[in-house]
Write a structure and sequence with these properties.
Blueprint (H helix, E strand, L loop, with lengths): L8 E6 L3 H9 L9 E6 L9 H6 L6 E3 L10 E4 L4 E6 L2 E6 L9 H13 L3 E5 L8 H9 L3 E5 L9 H8 L5 E3 L1 H15 L8 H6 L1 H17 L9 H15 L4 H10 L1 H11 L10 H10 L1 H5 L7 E7 L5 H14 L7 E8 L2 H9 L1 E3 L8 H7 E4 L2 E4 L1 H4 L2 E5 L11 E6 L8 H14 E9 L12 E5 L4 E4 L26 H23 L11
Parallel strand pairs: 1-2, 1-7, 2-4, 3-4, 7-8, 8-9, 10-11, 10-16, 11-15, 16-17
Antiparallel strand pairs: 5-6, 12-14, 13-14, 17-19, 18-19
C-alpha cells in the first residue's frame, strides 16, 4: 500500500473464553508498545459489546470500538462493533454491516487476511481461546506474506482450544505461548523488526559477507539434520523465514541464531516447517497449472465415456485450494465433451482441521486473489465478504483423512497431484512413496509434483513430459519391487532383485487384492456377498 504503516499491527481473534484471555494479554502490554491492536471476536449482533471497556480497565493503552475510516495508530486498541465486519486497507479500518441473511461465519479470517494483504511483514496474527477453525486461514495468509503468528497454548491452555489448535495443526503458527508471555514477545518483535529488516534484501545478502556465511551455515545445518538442501532456495525468502524464527526466539543477532540452531535440533525442524509455508494457494504457479491444463487434462478424458471415470488423487491437500483448482480445470474441459465420464477427485490429508476448512470450500476474498476473474465468477459464489466454491465443483471432491506413508494407497488413478508434500519426507520415505504412486496410477497415468521436487532415483518409473513444470507419465513396462510394507504388523518394505514383467503383473494383482481386502476389513461393515446361484 502507498501509506504502509511503519509499525506492527496486531490482529487478535478470540471467541468463547476469549475475554479472560484478552485480559491476560493486555494486562501485560505497556502503554508505549509501539504497536496497534485490532480485536475481532464472535459477537451477538443483538447485544451491545462492552469489550472495549473491559480491556480498557486492565491496560493503560486506550481502547475503543472501531469506526469506519479510522486511521490505525500505534499504542491504540480497536475492537469490533456488534453486527459488523472489519477489514483494513491502506492503514484505515473499514466497518460494514454484517448481513442478517448471509451472516459471515469467519469474521476473524476476514480481518486477518485483509491485514496480511495490507501490512505484509508488519502484520501480526494472534489466535486466542475459541471453538471451531475461524482464524486458521487468516494466520495462514499472514504467514505467507512474511508476518508473525502466535497461538494461545502450552501452560496457558485456553478454555476452548479449537481455534488455536486448528491454526497450530495447520503449521502456520510461529509461537505457541500462554497469554501472559505474549506481551513481552510482541514488544521484542516490534523492537527487532527494524534491525532485522535488511535480512530480506537481496542486495544485503549479496554484499554482506557475514550474512552470506550465516546463510550457508544454516543451509548446511538443515541438510545435516533434516536431510534437505536449501542452498538453492531464493536468498531473501530464505532469510525472511530465518528472521521470523529469530524474532520468535527473541534473538537479535544472526550468528546467535546459527549457534542456537546447532545446539537445538527442534529448532531445525521449526525452521524447516517455516520454509515450507505457503504452498496451498489457488492456481499456485500459474504457468504450471497452464501446463497441466494443456498437456495432461485432455489425455485424462481420452477414450472415456459416460460409463467411465476420471480419478484424481491429491495427497496432502491441506485446506483444499489446489484440490478445487484441479477440479475447476476438469469441470471446464468436461463441458467441451459430448460424452462426459464421472469425475472423482480424492483429496486426503492427516490434518482434520484443514480438511474441515477444505470441505466447507469457503475462503476470504484475499485468498482467492490468484483465481482469474473469469474463473472466479464461474466457479465461486460471492457470499458477503467471502467466496464459496460452487456446489457442482465441491461435489466432484471427496475429502478424507489419510496418511500417504501409513495407509493403503488409492488405485486406478489417472492423475496424482502431490505438490510440495515430498519435501516434508526424508529420502527413505520418498523412496517408498514414489513407487507407491506408480502402483496407484493406471497404465499411462500422470504424476504432478511441486517445482522443488523430483522423482529422485526412480527415473525408470516415470517419463518426464515437462521437466520445468514437474509433469511425469507412468512407465508401464518396468521392473519394480513391492514399494511399501503391506504386512498386518508393519513389516518393513520388501526389497529384492528386479522382477520380470510377468511377475510384476502377478505382484500387482496380489498387492491390489491385499490392499482392497485391508480397506474392506478396516472400513466396511460386516457383510455377505451372494452370487447368482445363491
Amino acid at each position: 500500500m502507498s501509506d504502509k504503516a511503519s509499525f506492527p499491527i496486531v490482529g487478535i481473534g478470540a471467541s468463547a473464553g476469549g475475554v479472560e484471555a484478552l485480559e491476560g494479554l493486555f494486562g501485560a502490554v505497556p502503554a508505549d508498545s509501539g504497536m496497534a491492536f485490532v480485536v475481532v471476536t464472535h459477537l451477538s449482533p443483538e447485544h451491545e459489546s462492552l469489550l472495549a471497556d473491559i480491556i480498557g480497565r486492565c491496560t493503560p493503552t486506550p481502547a475503543h470500538q472501531a469506526c469506519d475510516g479510522d486511521l490505525v495508530e500505534p499504542n491504540r486498541i480497536y475492537t469490533l462493533q456488534p453486527g459488523t465486519l472489519l477489514t483494513i486497507d491502506s492503514g484505515r479500518l473499514h466497518v460494514r454491516p454484517d448481513s442478517a441473511s448471509h451472516r459471515e461465519r469467519n469474521p476473524i479470517d476476514l480481518f486477518l487476511s485483509s491485514l496480511a494483504s495490507d501490512c505484509g511483514e508488519r502484520a501480526v496474527g494472534i489466535i486466542l481461546s475459541g471453538g471451531g477453525s475461524d482464524g486458521t486461514l487468516g494466520v495462514k495468509a499472514i504467514k505467507e506474506r512474511g508476518g508473525f503468528t502466535i497461538a494461545q497454548g502450552h501452560d496457558g491452555i485456553p478454555r476452548h482450544d479449537g481455534m488455536p489448535n486448528s491454526a497450530i495443526a495447520a503449521g502456520v503458527v510461529d509461537l505457541v505461548a500462554p497469554v501472559e508471555a505474549m506481551a513481552a514477545t510482541l514488544v521484542d518483535y516490534a523492537r527487532t523488526a527494524t534491525p532485522l529488516g535488511d535480512l530480506t534484501s537481496e542486495k544485503a545478502v549479496q554484499e554482506d559477507a557475514r550474512l552470506e556465511a550465516a546463510r550457508r551455515s544454516i543451509t548446511t545445518i538443515l541438510r545435516n539434520q533434516i536431510g534437505h538442501d536449501f542452498q538453492g532456495y531464493k536468498h531473501n525468502t530464505f532469510l525472511r523465514r530465518v528472521q521470523r524464527r529469530m524474532q520468535a526466539l527473541r534473538l537479535m543477532d544472526i550468528d546467535s541464531y546459527v549457534e542456537h540452531l546447532r545446539e537445538d535440533r527442534t529448532e531445525a525442524a521449526a525452521l524447516f516447517r517455516d520454509l515450507l509455508i505457503g504452498v496451498t494457494t489457488f492456481f499456485r504457479d500459474g504457468e504450471t497449472f497452464q501446463a497441466l491444463e494443456e498437456l495432461v487434462i485432455p489425455h485424462l478424458f481420452a477414450g472415456k465415456s459416460t460409463g467411465d471415470a476420471v480419478r484424481v488423487w491429491v495427497p496432502g491437500c491441506a485446506t483444499g485450494e489446489e484440490v478445487y483448482s484441479i477440479a475447476m480445470l476438469l469441470s471446464e474441459y468436461s463441458e467441451t465433451l459430448q460424452s462426459v465420464p464421472k469425475i472423482q477427485v480424492f483429496a486426503t490429508d492427516i490434518d482434520e482441521h484443514a480438511l474441515e476448512v477444505a470441505r466447507t470450500g469457503r475462503y476470504p476474498a484475499s485468498l482467492v486473489r490468484d483465481v482469474p476473474t473469469a474463473r472466479l465468477k464461474r466457479h465461486f459464489v460471492e457470499d458477503g465478504t467471502s467466496y464459496l466454491v460452487r456446489k457442482e465443483v465441491r461435489d466432484l471432491c471427496i475429502f478424507s483423512a489419510h496418511s500417504v506413508v501409513r495407509d493403503p494407497p488409492f488405485s486406478r488413478i489417472d492423475l496424482i497431484s502431490c505438490r510440495n508434500l515430498l519435501i516434508y519426507l526424508g529420502m527413505e520415505l520418498q523412496d517408498q512413496v514414489i513407487p507407491m504412486f506408480h502402483y496407484a496410477l493406471r497404465p499411462g497415468g500422470y504424476l504432478f509434483l511441486g517445482v522443488a521436487e523430483t522423482i529422485g532415483q526412480h527415473q525408470t518409473l516415470f517419463l518426464p513430459i515437462d521437466k520445468k513444470h514437474r509433469l511425469f507419465c507412468r512407465q508401464d513396462a518396468v521392473s519394480v519391487t513391492i514399494p511399501f510394507a503391506m504386512a498386518d504388523h508393519g513389516a518393513r518394505t520388501a526389497r529384492g532383485s528386479a522382477e520380470t514383467p510377468r511377475s510384476i503383473q502377478s505382484n500387482a494383482a496380489n498387492l491390489r487384492g491385499h490392499v482392497e481386502a485391508r480397506v474392506l476389513d478396516r472400513f466396511a461393515p460386516a457383510h455377505v456377498v451372494v452370487n447368482l446361484n445363491g
